[in-house]
Amino acid sequence: MRKRWRIGAAVVLLLTVLLGACGKEEPAPLPSSTPFPSPRGLRIAVASDLHFDPDNTDKDSGLGQTAYNPELLDALLRDARRQGAQILLLTGDLVNGGRIHRHEQLSAKLRAAEEAGLAVCVLPGNHDLAPIKQTDFAALYAGFGYDEAFSRDPGSLSYCVVRGGLMLLMMDTAGYGAGAVDLPGAKAQEGSGAYFTEDTLRWVRAMLQEAERQSLHVLSAGHYNLLPEISRQPDMDGYYLENGTAFADLLRSFYVPLYLSGHQHIRAVYQENGLTELLTEYLLAYPTGYTILDVTEKEIRCLPRRIDVDAWAAETGQTDPILLDFAAWQQGNLRQYAEENVRYMAGKNPLTKRELQDAADFFYAVMDAFWHGELYMRRTELESMRGYDAFFHCAEGFAYGWWLKDLIEYSSPLQRGFTLHWPD
Predict the structure, then answer these.
(1) Rounded to the nearest 10 degrees, how much is the dihedral formed by the CA atoms of 334, 337, 343, 347?
(2) DSSP per residue over 198-253, as a string?
(3) What does the pLDDT look like over 154-163, one tens digit per residue?
(4) Where are the beta strands (DSSP E) in 307-376?
(5) What gap in Å lies between CA 196 and CA 278, rounded to an integer?
(6) Strands 289-295, 151-152: pairing kind
(7) Fold category of 36-314+415-421 in CATH
(8) The dihedral of CA 158, 161, 166, 167: what is its sign?
(9) Cα 237 to the center of its chain, rounded Å
(10) Which of 140, 176, 213, 304 has the fewest C-beta atoms lying within 10 Å of its C-beta?
(11) Rounded Cα–Cα distance for residues 167 and 162 (Å)
(12) What is the C-alpha to C-alpha distance for residues 395 and 177, in angstroms, rounded to an integer?
């Protein structure tokens, strides 16, 4: 099983990055692209894996979509404000490669968003430090959670903020080499797995006890995952989170219902023993999206939000024709990606010309349904498609074969939103 997860992680990450080739197709409707109802209680926007990199300007390459990350970030910030979000949580991998000028340019954009009324709280991910150090990160993002922290963990970049009756427990899960560690009591990671030190776990317990004393509700966030199997495998380079199970058990013991994460570049929901984890997708993935949380005294309502990039481009006077027709461009990228991968796999497991097209149609339909959160509704339709058998014949021996079967089998309506109730 561990080997399958290793291959699967590569598939997921490659898929979300490689949807940048040119293409054109009429887009399917994007769910939640119209305004949401007025906020109930505190409205929080959650986004992850911005991978902000203004140095990438090659919009004609196979990675073309990533070159639009400054524009997609602007669209995100504008959309979150328009939806009435009071807070934006960014759960790590803010920039690519930890370069200071990228952090500085991102900070400037976030500062403008705060001046427009959107408070921002950030967390580091595995892409955000080295060459900068922990103290550099805290200084660069002082105005985005660190200065207003109710408490900070002395040995990591973890902190918590309190807004009204809610405590946001923001966890630094990234794990760093010796070159990035300079906080008192911080420890460089050993091997490739990130971890919480025992001191950090004691700080977490103290914060949860304080929240209990003050009768505060608690939500937690981090970059790495807790509940997916991939996050528990010691041989999973770059995914394994030591103390993840201990931290999850600590959240459960204080009845924290929701943990927010990213890192895998997909939208997913996991539930286990009273704890729910929501993974928010890569901003540069298809289709461009984030999460809206409406938090009241009684419940947390979680809804996916798809950004209408076309409308943003028109309203802000963009002239790039791709941005003005972005949904169709992304849809075409997905179609082309499906066709190219089927042809590649068929080099080992040959298909007829008709079977090639049918297999590509099936692959495209599954991935389109997956990204739109509709896979669970379309399972019977997809399994009856003519290209089903052809696809799994050509995918034999490739990770896509078992991965698509797993996607279809375990697809969940939770991807389209869910409501959690605070414990009594």
Answers:
(1) -140
(2) HHHHHHHHHHHHHHHHTT-EEEEE-SS-SSSGGGG-TT-TTT-EETHHHHHHHHHH
(3) 999 999 999 9
(4) none
(5) 20
(6) unpaired
(7) Purple Acid Phosphatase; chain A, domain 2 (3.60.21)
(8) positive
(9) 19
(10) 213
(11) 4
(12) 38
Cis peptide leading into 29, omega within 30 of 0?
Answer: no
Neighbours of 276 (CB within 10 A): 19
**Residue extents of the structural domains in the chain:** 36-314+415-421, 321-413
- Helices then strands, counting H and E runs in the chain, come out as 13, 15
The amino acid at 185: G
Instruction: Provide the 3-class DSSP secondary structure of residue 91.
Output: strand
| Residues 212, 164 contacting (CB under 8 angstroms) | no
Element (H, E) at 331: helix 326-346
Rounded to 10 degrees, the C-alpha dihedral 345/350/356/359 comes to -60
Specify the residue for token string 């380079």.
237
Whole-model pTM: value is: 0.89
Reduced 3-state DSSP string for 285-306: CCCCEEEEEEECCCEEEEEEEE
pLDDT in tens, 267-284: 889 999 999 999 999 898
- Residue listed under structure tokens 């204080």: 254
Which SS3 state, helix, strand or coil, does residue 178 take? helix
Q: Determine which helix (DSSP H) or strand (DSSP E) holds 82, and give its type and residue range.
A: helix 69-82
- Enter the tokens of residue 214: 């003050």
CB 302 within 8 A of CB 278: yes
**Tens-place pLDDT, residues 229-279:** 878 887 777 777 888 999 999 999 999 999 999 998 888 899 999 999 999
The residue with tokens 């990591």 is: 156
